[in-house]
Amino acid sequence: MNGPNGDPLSIYAKIVVAVNAISTIASTFVACMIIGIRCYNKEIVNRVSIRLTLAMAVTDIFYSIFQVWNLFSTTRVSCVLSTWGVLLTTLAFNFLSVTVALNLQLIFLHDRRNLKLREQYYFIVDFGGAFFITVLPVVFGRVGLKPDGTCWFLDTWRAKGILWETATYLMWICMGVLYCLVAVTMVVWKLHQQRKQLSRLIRLSPDTRVMQQEKMLIRMAMRIVFHALVPIASQTPRFILELMNFLGVRPRFPLVLIVDIAAGLQGTLNAIVFLFDPAIHAVWYEFRKRLTSHFMVEQYVFTSSTRSEWVKTRIKSFLVLNNGVQRPVSGIAGLLPPLEELDDEFHLTFASADDEKGRVMKLL
């Protein structure tokens, strides 16, 4: 059996399987982290974007499974089911990314903070829409085993096949990517304007809690906006490939490989973006704080007679003192700066959910 354009499947398959395996591991890590953090302290991940990120991670796990299944399918039924799975999970992931951008736009740009049942509609529309759109080519027999041994839309060299692929796949991906691009541009511009305004306000009132919360809100929005960049990075090569097909240009094997690698990396990219989420920073802060509490009790371990100055410096940059708690100044305790110099993100982000800024952070 040969891969796309007659190239040996062994090379193509090994790379695609490896990429999807990495993406599956990354998505599983994201899902386990979110579930684990929720069990530890659900307020840390009590945000719309976090729940959407979890849905994206689970969707990508199924995408990788369907993609590998599609690669090795040799029967008609297997081809149809695996192709439908790839289409469904691709559109669902794309719609979820669009929803992240839409939610950020509504909250951050248009100040829409009282949309009832908005989050429930997000998931219903995303998964329901993806299912309805992708089931149509299956019902009408427009996907299956092609003459070259691959599983995809049938008769893509004819107008009818092109129309089906465009209407139930490419058009939605294209619109999603374009919307994410526009939304990201608008949000980044708004962030730039607010940062300039915040800089002026901080010079007038540098230590107010409101200014600190506004600063954290901007940081959070900047990190969330990167989720909307994932479909842009993962689906753009697909546009180039399909455009070449429509123009009658036969794509070379490296381009076909790049398309599947980019699509397979969407879960990995999503995981990388998640690592910069404030929730991860909050958990890391709590971990450092707990270690600090433990080692302050056993601080004799860090006395000058048993540890070098280099070790003390490293510990100083890692541990966190509880604000307002008296500690002895001997040993490592005397080396630690105040709490606000070490890390202020946890309290500023999650400890103020009862005020207006805290409610906005939960909506993001």
UniProtKB/TrEMBL annotation:
Gene Ontology annotations of biological process type: adenylate cyclase-activating G protein-coupled receptor signaling pathway
Localisation: Membrane
Signal sequence, renumbered to the chain: none
Protein's membrane topology: Multi-pass membrane protein
Keyword annotations: Membrane, Transmembrane, Transmembrane helix
Positions of transmembrane segments: 12-40, 52-72, 84-109, 121-140, 169-191, 253-280
Keyword field contains Acyltransferase: no
UniProt keyword annotation of Transmembrane present: yes
Superkingdom of the source species: Eukaryota
Major subcellular location class: membrane
GO cellular component, one term: plasma membrane
GO molecular function, a single term: G protein-coupled receptor activity
Name used for this protein in its record: G-protein coupled receptors family 2 profile 2 domain-containing protein
Organism annotation: Basidiobolus meristosporus CBS 931.73
